[in-house]
Amino acid sequence: GYAVFTETPLVLVDVQRSGPSTGQATKGAQGDFFQARWGTHGDHPIIAISPTSVEDSFWETIRAFNLSEKFRIPVILLADGIIGHTREQIRIPDPEEVEIIYRKLPANEEEAKYPFGDVHGDLVPPMPLFGNGYFTHVTGSTHKENGLRDVYTPEVHDRLVRRLHKKIEVHEKEIQKWEEYYTDDVEILLVSWGVSARPSLGAVIEARKRGIKAGLIVPKTVHPFPGKRIRELSKKAHVILVPEMNLGQMILEVQRFVREEIPVISVNKIGGVPLTVEDILKEIESSAERSRHRSAD
User: Which residues form the Pyruvate flavodoxin/ferredoxin oxidoreductase pyrimidine binding domain (predicted)?
Assistant: First the structure.
């Protein structure tokens, strides 16, 4: 919460384990989807990214730092215990291949006077660096554009919190990222994230071999959630399946955007054991069979 309110760039890595509490210690899970979004009190925006492999973790960590620096916001890297224990080969790129984004700095002393002001019209204030000679006020209490504390004026709080939200909302297209597989003619749409996306893709490929028009969308940015794109895809599909290693979390976001236009079904597994291609394929085939029966009726 302090980092959100002071617009301090940082990346928090959450390698999810099976819980609650100590739970299964080093076993993987995907139970922190909503903790990542609502892990602190008050109205606040957040960015959360979920990689699907070891190499993906490398690149998505870089993206997390870039987003954090560019938008002055904490970014959560939402990994899991399975990926955290996986050993895979990755290609380490030349430094020249990697885009690095640095925070926007004040151009002059006048800009530095407003470390929480929208001086450039993009809702992201310049951030002075320590040691640059500027005097900057920073507080976790409600503050004015110049950083001075003001917890008594409703308009000051309203203006500040609304700007924090809006700076993410207006840049959603730049922040959001997802991958799609076989969605052009999709009838059974899978929405999956993190480690569960890998067996989901395997199940979709196998279903296609069996003549079932399955497809997959994998949100890499899970907050802000790409609900608009999922709603667009839902207009093609007969049913949506949501495989995840919890008792139903991302599915609630899917349902929020799709509403009750088509069935949205959980494919859940807990206990520290990942979903398999066979687990998910079974649900795809069951959904295909139900769709055939409805069409016959």
Answer: 1-162
What is the token pair recorded at 219? 């949100």
DSSP-assigned letter for residue 146: T
Report domain extents, the chain. Answer: 177-296
**pTM, two decimal places:** 0.94
CA distance 252 to 250: 5
Q: Which two tokens stand for residue 57?
A: 């973790």
Q: How many CB atoms are located within 10 Å of the residue 70 CB?
A: 18
- What is the per-residue pLDDT for 133? 79
| Cα distance between the two ends of the chain | 53
* Domain covering 177-296, topology: Rossmann fold (3.40.50)
Question: Sorting pLDDT into bands at 50, 70 and 90, what band is 131?
Answer: confident
Cα-to-chain-centroid distance, residue 132 = 34
Separation in Å, CA 11 to CA 67, 68, 74, 75, 180: 9, 7, 6, 5, 26
